[in-house]
Amino acid sequence: MERENRSYNLVIGIVALLAVILIIAVIGYFVSRPRPLVIQGEADATEYRVSGKVPGRILELKVKEGDMVHKGDTLVYIDSPEVRAKLDQANAAKAAAVAQNRKAINGARKEQIAGAYELWQKAIVGEDVMKKSYDRMKKLYDQNVISAQKFDEMEAQYNASIATTKAAKSQYDMAVNGARIEDKDAAAALVERANGAVEEVGAYLNELYLTSPADGIVSASFPEVGELVGTGSPIMTVTDLKDQWFTFNVREDYLHGLKTGDKVVVTVPALDNKEYEATVYYMAVRESYATWKATKETGEYDAKTFEVRAKPLSPIEGLRPGMTAIVKDGKNLKK
Length: 335
Known about the structure:
Layout: H1 2-32, E1 38-51, E2 56-61, E3 68-69, E4 74-79, H2 81-106, H3 110-142, H4 148-177, H5 181-206, E5 209-211, E6 216-221, E7 228-229, E8 234-251, E9 263-268, E10 274-285, H6 288-291, H7 295-298, E11 305-312, E12 324-328, E13 333-334
């Protein structure tokens, strides 16, 4: 009887030991079993930073953060008295250039032409008088009545009167013909330059009203009304929610042959863990100084991280930049 009890206890002990070993083995299996790889990323969308070419003071913000806007909608009005002053200067310079050009085209005034004509006629009369005096002196000189010096003086005066007549005639012709063709071209060029200056300032005036470059939502607004902004300073950010994608940073040994054109199933926790199909369209290695993993750490080989972008097949309602996106290895990878 005692021997039977010992045998029974031995069997029970062996069974209990096997049960404990089995339980430990099962627990070890589940603990040591490799977990499915979860690749986490985030949603992103195209962002436009609205900025102006003209420095000035914010006079009015026509929209606020969270507002939906359409392409061409006015977002900001910047006040710049300096630009308006430059426009006045450009218009004044244009008026002066137009006046100079009109003067070159019209030529001299009637009074100037008449004065030049009278001077020419006066010179002709003077030349006739000197011609008669010259003829008399020449006869006297030929008869040896006067000295050669007297004749030379008279001849010089006669030649001077001829030159005076020619000069008066040239002045009259110049007054009649107006400005030279080169002067007219130069005056016309000044008008063109003045028009260009006015157009340039007009373009700067248009930059005082900043418009939306695309349909989207105002995701950020930086300055307040009354603050000064410089050239190129960002004033607002407009996010185009129709141009969405997911971005993942994946170590190269986790890519498993993934390539552009492959489809992945992305889960978005913020949208009730709904799954969306997306197409991989971009893969590129990230900067090595930020993503390189050295051999000493892995014990195998150097590993780099790749940026992978996937675009959903259609815009996702409610998706916002920054929302978490998850791709689970295996069942969510589709070739």
